[in-house]
Amino acid sequence: MTTPPTIEQLHAAAAEHADQGRPVPCQQGTPADRAAWTSEDRHDLARAAEQCAPCPIRAQCRAVAVHAQEPTGAWGGTVPGRRGGTGRINTPAVLAALAAHDHPATVREIAAHIVAGTPSPKDRQEVASIAARLVSTGRATKTGAGNRVRYTTTTEQETAA
């Protein structure tokens, strides 16, 4: 098991990106803009977490928050109460798991592929949420209903990921 980065390493990575003229999302804008990451308002936090999507240090940031059991703020695209797990379940992981199946896959199969074992209910919930987003953006298709829902990727480019 790898050791998660420290907060100091996270700050150093953020500073390095800023020095290269590519500040991470939580360090851009006005002080009022940056306050969204530490807000107590769940809507502000949700908006801040969405802005983490293109961040080059998102995975490290989430790992710090998960390891520290950070109870506040938006970290690595997560908000309090939604940080659990290992951070392995994300859009690229779901797309890769879908691509690994030679048949349409269930949420349980996708989650089991990602966690390399028996997925928890939270793992399955995260996969279902991401899969629904992929369907809504046209990056995956959904067939079936109820307990028989299955997903597949929609493009060759993503199945090669």
UniProtKB/TrEMBL annotation:
Residues 25-85 form the 4Fe-4S Wbl-type domain. Residues 13-37, 141-161 are annotated as: Disordered. It comes from the Bacteria. InterPro entries: 4FE4S_WBL. Residues 150-161 have a biased composition (Polar residues). This is WhiB family transcriptional regulator. It comes from Kocuria oceani. The lineage of its organism: Bacteria, Bacillati, Actinomycetota, Actinomycetes, Micrococcales.
